[in-house]
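Help wanted!
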Amino acid sequence: MTQEAGQDSVLAGCRVLDFADEKGVLCAKLLGDMGADVIKVEPPGGDHTRGFGPFVDNVPHPERSLYFWHYNTSKRGVTLSIESTAGGDLLRKLVATADVLVESYPPGYLDSLGLGYQALHRLNPALIMTSITGFGQTGPRRDYKLSDIVGQALGGMMYVNGDPDSPPVCWAGLQAYHSASYYAAIGTMCALMARDLSGSGQHVDVSIEESVCSAVEHVNSAYLYPGRMPGPRDAGRIARRQGTLHWSAGFHNARAKDGYVLMSWFGDWDTLVAWLESEGMAADLTDPKYNTDPRLRADEAPHIFEVMAEWAATHTSQELVDGAQLRRIPFAYIRAPSELLAEHHLQERGFFHQVEHPELGRSVVYPGAPYKFNGTPWRISRRAPLIGEHNSEVYGKELGLSQDNLASLAEAGVI
Amino acid sequence: MEGIGALQGVRVIDFTWVVAGPCCTAILADQGAEVIKVERRPVTAIQQAYMRQRFDFMGNLSRNKYSVGLNMADARGLEVIKRLISISDVVIENFSSRVMPNWGLDYENMTKINPDIIYVSMAGMGHTGPLKDYVTYGPTLQALSGFNLLTGFPERGPVGNSYSYADMAGGYTGAMAVLLALRHKRKTGRGQYVDLAQFEGTCALIGTPFLNYTVNGTIPQRLGNQSLNAPAACHNVYRCQGEDRWCVISVFSDAEWDAFGNVLGNPSWVKEARFATLANRIANAGELDRLVEEWTIERSPEEVMELMQGAGVAAGVVQNGEDIVARDPQLQARGYWIEGTTAEGEKGSYVGIPFKLSENPGRLRRLAPLLGEQNSHVFGELLGMSELEVAKYTEEGVFFSGLDSSDEPEL
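Answered by r_m:
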């Protein structure tokens, strides 16, 4: 039977305590946007990530950080100082009600507070603890510091980015953090599946460096499997920077009259050449050698793209992309994310989501679901929390602390 | 529970090909799911790569999986697939949107075979929308979503095209989708259909530049190696001793700046007013970077990293493939590289698993399969076909394994 739309969400009833900073904050968003009851736990006064821009109207403000808004959708928020004794006790009360705890403290830190996995497991044997750190919980570099660019560098994302005569450059966006957060969410889901059979939780140890290493496609494979790679004959043991030439040799950027376009020679070669030839711009691409030895195209890609670039410069990007896609050749517009809003394809598929920000009296368009479930749709259930917004609800109503108790905890800086 | 995978008992019929799809199903196979890779005729050039050996680019993506060779153009082959679907949990593919309906395997028809099936499609643009018939690969998605344009230095052109990050992201986004659907089915008994447009998965990873546009109207720009989130300086890549050797250094706070200065031996410029505050350091980043590089150029990137890390500053060598595979002590110590040996004694490695479950760790259960290697296991043991039946189907080309002369490279 097909699933009726709008029925209960995938992770309804699954409580997640989110202590993760920028290294892993996306993990609990992935769970929350699919219905988990995520409680973001911040130090009293708010998490340091509220200081990350961009900001609404470019004015820094802890409740108006677009960074914080983006990564903390579908989460409620409480404040808690876990270093204090009273704070530790409150954390234990929370843990007793939780299915998952996500954190990104330096390895050993929670242990030093008596709040490490072993201690929490004794308290709640069903708890899944997902720890996201730069280098993992063990190993000679476990105490190294990691920022996103450091992760991209060590994991291999950077070395291959850029022109041969320029320094290496990182991928746009926080892709080391993003990759690790996705693997952390995957690991958490696997642990939930295992718990169904065993009844027990476990520790999920996520390394950001390893997450990057698992997301660099050809970089490690070129070294591991010399001579056994698709693409140019001499793919090379060490993948290197090649400007905008994709490692498969099949894609390259070009300038059209009105902007950048991604070109490709994948698809039917004769169709592509006939197109250029019809405008007298095929140069030597009509040479039958390109058909008799198919791997020659990969080997001679720089030349092929030079010929194509000259031809592309005489066209608008629309002429190129429409013409190519009609011919089943994978050209594409090279666009800014700002242009996505106008993309009909995304509009029709309902990719954009309006989220209410009642405290500002406005609603904001957010990027939407990475996947469309027909039975249990992704949704942003609420905007990111204000600082301590749900202290009363969580500590008072749900854990049963009195208003007086809450007041004195607040005064003592515990919450 | 040691040795039992977290996804023990989950059966996946895997029609995926090229990179994103196999990347997704490898994540599941590593955790113990039974992933049955279906190969069909004609065999594409890309699939040629993994048919002859277990350790190569495609082999890496096929580890822990089963492989069957089946002729989907033959009605009998189609019938066998349907029987397989009826005993499986998940069907997953990343074809263009016409392929599955052409086989009568759209979601509605699949639910007639197996009412609780989970069907995940990972088409580049999804199954609906005006661009659903676009031909897409990783680079196309990176171009359309903004990754290509936003990667690179402001004074140079966009360079977000070195490899298909979108495919790797498609892999982990897809795995998350399958796991979410599996969880729901465990709880409710109900399957569902997931239309995962890799384009949307990629757009979801752009991050804050999108909100910066919808809220502030700011058009995103290439930032080079500047920090996107936390304000920072210095925050860049610095040339070191050796050929094409670099180290990144990222300094976020005054305390880290002091530590950074100490590592350099506190040259006078470290204490100058123009670098005294974070705001000043950011404003004078160009000049700062030049001065830092005068120091790093005299040292190996490893030395720069070790000195900085010793002082509590986040720094890292810009590692190439050899650094990562052969020289990274952290990856070695954590057993990140998965080693295997074939029956013939050939040794090789696979890229590892970046998350470790303490009780049910993912691991290597079997090497990448050769094409059709598990035909008799899947058709015989799982489906209960007799040896005679399997032999007959093989002789008549409904089942096949390995390569024969009819499989000429296309590319």
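OP: Thanks! One thing I noticed: Chain B has a mean pLDDT of 94.
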